[in-house]
Amino acid sequence: MAEQVSNQLSEELVSFLQGEQIVLLASIDAENGSPNLLCISWLLATDPTTLRLAIDGRSKLLQNIAKDDRVTVTVLGLGTATAVTGRANKYVDKLEDVALNMAGVEIKVEAVRDVMFYGGKLTQELAYEKTYDKALAEKYDAEIFAALRR
């Protein structure tokens, strides 16, 4: 069983979660109560107790958190797997100065746990490649992370 490490993010984790990290976001499906999992990269830690993310304004996640605000963000990095549980809410319908229709979601951290299996250590950071226009990807990233930091 994973041991509770803290009720807030470490300074190292806040620094790590400043954008472009792949995380898994689990919510509870509003229709059938099953787990719903998303892989996202537009997420950042604004401080040790708050995560913010950008999500498509039509995303099922918004329906899920409107019904049940409990979520878990799994971070694979810094040599381990970390589960960050908390309460999510949509704080804005459309992020300002962002070309895409992206809602802003804020997660208030309740618990941070190391969930890496005993004796295991991640030895590489996750890497990914955006498969659409590079200049457009950079534009969207800049707009979204600026909006999340406001």
UniProtKB/TrEMBL annotation:
> What Pfam families does the database record attribute to this sequence?
PNPOx_N
Q: Where is the Pyridoxamine 5'-phosphate oxidase N-terminal domain?
A: 9-96
Query: What is the protein's name according to its record?
Result: Pyridoxamine 5'-phosphate oxidase N-terminal domain-containing protein
